[in-house]
Design brief:
This protein has about 725 residues and is of the alpha/beta class. It is about 55% helix and about 10% strand.
Length: about 725
């Protein structure tokens, strides 16, 4: 069916589809308004790693904090002490040992006071408990008070005695002995390993106890560290480690009392461990956070997709009315990107931070100092490196209207239910139009199909509202990409029917550009319909994410293959029909598959694997250093980086498909048309990343289109010259024969 006939026959449904698109644009405008106010980001320094940096430099921790304060970074993440940190990096004399290890020494009882041993034997113990020994009055006060405040009285035993073992310790020495009641659920094990016999065969597997979660539970802030930070006028963002089973209201009250002791009301709560504080008993954290106007931090995973969802974090985020920001932790693999990709300094780390803020709605950077990329422990101790990096980062962010300060919080915007229904109906009506692009559908059947789709959509909207918006978004991504592919191929065929095969480039170029522009606009309409259902703030914060990205990319490619057979059969040069015929099925069944077809399928399969494997942040195929550097350059030059596969391959391919259709080369029309369909799906895919601000998607697509047209013209000239050369060689060969 010619495009004109298709439009005439389906004008009613197309009119309704246009109305649903208007609904989508209204939603997009409202989301744009929300995003436009979200223009401030913050940086929180990690105290523990900054302390390690200071140890490697000629300056102390106060000097380093002061330097960062002077460049506008005023908040410091301070992790509460635990038994593990007290043993490893504190002036306190603390030892914590698993009873499993203690019990392996047959004479262990003689190492501890008799009355303590008698008490724990009377009480009972097992290999999952933790035995703690503390020396020194300050350490004893800190640990015993923290344990008493955080643990139920029946879950521990404390004995504090002076002058024990006077032959071993100086006179007046005080020691505290604590037994914490642990369980198998608290226990941490070494990786499973096996004994082997003399023949190298496995004999028995072992799971040795390594530690316990009890050793990681927060016991409070170290007073000396608090004083260092507060004396500089900087604000503490406490990091509390909470673990299920030891995270009740008593624990939460002790944690908050520790905050209040130092006058701390956190700007942000960035949960650590397994849960938010007090989550064993319900809503203590929510009440505390809500009463004090604290912003909840959602930590992005190290693969830059979704958030680390500790127990209760989503409930707290939603309970505060989404008074929430996304947090980017500078993971260790990012810390090592100094002098990376051939740069001289911290440019690639700066690029990473820039993308987190601009492209992923990150509004808090939890910053850890830079390490040398060939050393796991050596830090970069030149403050100028950090100053230059943040100065450059802020200059680049200013182009996007983003500045450093208290992290801005997005307004809690939710897509209205009637709008969701309209968007779903748009996807359903678009889907009802698709069969008419490959089959000789009568108008009444298309209308009946659209009616059935409307009934199904309305039912799904009423019965499963949460799943509905995901389905509507996914369906729009597929349907509109397929409609755009149908238009581009049908328009290419129409150009081949109206223009003579000997048409000059001057005649073909305007037509091919027009086809490309309209096809991209159709995909952009699909992008709007894809993004609109998921434009609620919870999706922009990645409390929910788009599902089915790869399927949304593959289905339009499969549909294009069906379209091509409908419009060109098996590479027919003068096919009149624009729909599938019985003879197409017969031809497929009778087709003797030539070797070139097998090779082509193999190449297409490899290309498809490469295309899908590169998709997403967990791509199986690494991107070359050269391409990454090129991306960085585009990112610095333009407000948004155009997508490589669009402007470099797919959009020029649509123009080449039109050229090949005019030149009566159906095989190459298929090849370039399929490549072009990748670009049309990519436009929708750009807007599937709901966390990315809308303006970036529109700018990115516009730049890809402009560059694609320019490169398409260049490619067409080159391809035309190659065709002329091939024809000359072929003519000469035929004449010689």
């Amino acid at each position: 069916m010619a495009m004109k006939d298709f439009l005439e026959k389906n004008k009613i449904l197309l009119g309704v589809l246009a109305l649903t698109l208007i609904a989508g644009l209204v939603v997009i405008a409202q989301r744009w308004s929300v995003e436009a106010k979200n223009k401030t980001y913050d940086v929180v320094l990690d105290y523990s790693e900054l302390e390690l940096l200071a140890e490697q430099s000629d300056e102390d921790i106060s000097w380093w904090l002061e330097q960062f304060r002077d460049i506008g970074i005023t908040r410091v993440g301070l992790t509460e002490e635990s038994l593990t940190s007290l043993m490893e990096s504190s002036p306190f004399d603390v030892t914590a040992t698993m009873m499993d290890e203690v019990m392996q020494d047959a004479s262990w009882r003689s190492s501890y006071p008799d009355n303590f041993v008698q008490q724990i034997e009377q009480r009972g113990y097992d290999r999952y408990d933790v035995l703690v020994e503390v020396s020194g009055q300050e350490a004893i006060d800190f640990v015993t008070e923290a344990v008493a405040a955080r643990f139920p009285a029946d879950s521990y035993l404390q004995v504090i005695q002076p002058d024990l073992f006077s032959s071993r310790y100086p006179a007046g020495d005080e020691r505290a002995y604590i037994l914490l009641d642990g369980s198998v659920n608290d226990t941490l094990y070494e990786a499973t390993y096996s004994y082997r016999d003399t023949k190298g065969k496995g004999f028995a597997e072992r799971n040795d106890i390594a530690s316990s979660k009890l050793m990681a539970i927060s016991l409070g802030l170290m007073p000396e560290k608090v004083a260092i930070i507060q004396d500089l006028g900087m604000e503490i963002i406490p990091r509390t480690m909470s673990y299920s089973g030891h995270n009740d209201t008593q624990y939460a009250e002790a944690v908050v009392a520790g905050y209040e002791k130092y006058g701390i009301v956190p700007e942000y709560i960035i949960a650590g461990g397994e849960a938010v504080i007090g989550y064993d008993d319900g809503e203590y954290a929510l009440d505390y956070i809500r009463d004090n106007g604290i912003t909840v931090g959602l930590i992005e995973t190290n693969v830059q997709r979704e958030n680390i969802m500790q127990s209760g974090i989503e409930d707290v985020a939603r309970g505060t009315g989404l008074n929430t920001v996304r947090v980017f932790s500078v993971w260790n693999y990012i810390q090592y990107r100094y002098a990376y990709y051939g740069y001289q300094g911290a440019e690639e780390i700066e690029n990473t931070l820039f993308r987190t803020v601009v492209e992923r709605n990150i509004r808090v950077i939890y910053f850890k100092p830079i390490k040398q990329n060939k050393s796991s422990y050596a830090y970069i101790t030149d403050m100028e490196v950090y100053r230059d990096m943040f100065d450059s980062l802020n200059d680049r962010l200013a182009r996007h209207g983003i500045s450093m300060g208290r992290a801005s919080v997005m307004e809690d915007y939710q897509v209205a239910r009637p709008m969701l229904l309209a968007l779903g109906l748009g996807a359903g009506i678009g889907g009802a139009l698709l069969p008419g692009t490959v089959l000789p559908m009568k108008k009444k059947w298309t209308l009946l199909l659209a009616g059935a789709a409307a009934v199904c959509v309305t039912g799904a909207w009423a019965v499963m509202p949460n799943t509905f918006r995901l389905l509507a978004s996914f369906a729009s991504a597929v349907v509109f990409a397929c409609l755009a592919a149908a238009f581009s191929l049908q328009a290419a065929k129409r150009a081949g029917q109206t223009l003579p095969a000997r048409s000059s480039l001057g005649r073909i170029l305007p037509v091919s550009i027009g086809v490309l522009v309209i096809a991209v606009l159709l995909s952009l309409a699909g992008a709007v319909m894809t993004a609109a259902p998921l434009s609620s703030t919870d999706y922009m914060l990645e409390l929910g994410i788009f599902r089915g990205v790869k399927a949304a990319q593959l289905l339009p490619l499969a549909f294009f293959c069906l379209l091509f057979v409908a419009y060109y059969g098996f590479f027919e040069k003068n096919r009149a029909a624009n729909h599938l015929q019985i003879k197409d099925i017969v031809s497929a069944l009778r087709w003797t598959i030539p070797v070139w077809a097998i090779v082509l399928v193999g190449i297409a399969g490899l290309a498809g694997y490469y295309y899908l494997a590169r998709t997403g942040n967990e791509a199986d195929v690494p991107i070359s250093t050269l391409e990454l550097l090129a991306r960085n350059v585009l990112e610095e030059v333009f407000l948004a980086r155009p997508r490589t596969k669009e402007f470099l391959v797919a959009f020029p391919a649509i123009m080449l498909a039109v050229y090949c259709a005019v030149k009566r080369m159906p095989f190459w029309t298929a090849v370039f048309g399929l490549a072009g369909t990748i670009g049309l799906t990519s436009v929708c895919n750009t807007f599937m990343h709901i966390r990315t601000p809308l303006y970036l998607g529109f700018i990115r697509t516009a730049l890809s289109l402009v560059f694609g047209i320019v490169l398409g013209c260049v490619y067409m000239v080159c391809f035309d010259l190659l065709c002329q050369l091939w024809n000359k060689v072929l003519k000469k060969y035929v004449e010689a024969e």
